[in-house]
Amino acid sequence: MWVHLHFGPTVTLPGGFGSTAVLLRLGTFLMIGGTSGPTSEPHLTTGKEHHVLTNHGSLSVSFYGDPEKPALVTYPDVALNHMSCFQGLFLCPEVASLLLYNFCIYHISPPGHELSAVPVSSDVPVLSVDQLADQVADVLDFFGLDSVMCLGVTAGAYILTLLALKYSKRVVGLILVSPLCKAPSRKEWICNKLMSNFLYFYGMCDLIKEWLIQRYFGEEVCGTSQDPESDIVQACSRLLDGRRNANIWWFLQSINERHDLTEALKELQCRMLIFVGENSPFRSDALNMTTKLDRENSVLVEVKKCGSLVTEEQPRAMLSPMEYFLAGFNLYRPNELSCSPRSPLSPSCISPELLSPESMGVKLKPIKTRTSLESIDF
Description:
Helix content is 33%, strand content 17%. An 11-stranded mixed β-sheet has the order 2-3-4-6-5-7-8-9-10-1-11, with helices on both faces. It has helices at residues 82-91, 93-102, 129-143, 155-166, 186-202, 206-216, 219-222, 231-241, 245-256, 283-292, 310-313, 319-327, and strands at residues 3-7, 30-31, 49-54, 57-64, 71-75, 104-109, 148-153, 171-177, 271-277, 298-303, 362-366. This is Ndr family. InterPro entries: AB_hydrolase_fold, NDRG. It comes from Musa troglodytarum (fe'i banana).
């Protein structure tokens, strides 16, 4: 496994970029804004699913960790939720210790994508991508989060990028996996429309599952007539059987009408770490995205022999780049002698030699700039 990294200089930002807990009544929907809101519960319950009624409908949010820590907001791809999109990443002990030690994790599911979701009513209009981004901002308001780090995959990466463009002061960093940034090509638009029709009339049939699997994974794990599918592909296929067809259709319609963010990317003020699989159908979007970004504040990581869903297919490849990236925010993975008493996971005992870039198959390609670290003032 080889990973190619393109780095700008490391930048130090003030630590603790904002996370204030608010009260939430479990098992109910609460309106944000105005005078409505939670009033009686003494604390948020970690590891629980919370339903927040935003200005554009309800969203499921599951959070893990200490709400006094900085916030990491995640958003998955089409037909996935945080369990099927980020489980592989958080099951990697080193990555889990890095993220859970430094962050309180807020997993946002697209409307109707959470476990045991009810079908979206046919009377509910399809939201625009701007409204989906506004939903996330409403969730931040509800939980009292002034500024956050974001982690999104493909369609989720697009929504979080749009969030950073619309609410620039609230997003301090973006970690994007196989992101979208352009409007759909004619080929993609037609394909999405055809798949939407199949989904609407026939449900989660084999054709739809095969299309989604190819969207997520590279050929290395998808299998052939001679080689069976890998365990992660089989598990994902089983999870897709439990999805609500109408809800997937609803979200796919929104993403298929997305607008081009390419020119607006120059306005992004946050630092960005972008992963893309070599075999991802959205690889060109990710490469195009990096050409529009400030090279001093953006990093591209291309993962060899991998599809779009790097978080599940090769999560360990994300460790070293994320460590370098988060170090710019004064956030580090704990060593075995200094673990956080509030972290649900302790770091695994790993020999320091095994964490070197060479031993993990990582090639670093620094970008030469004239700007010194001392001259950068945030």
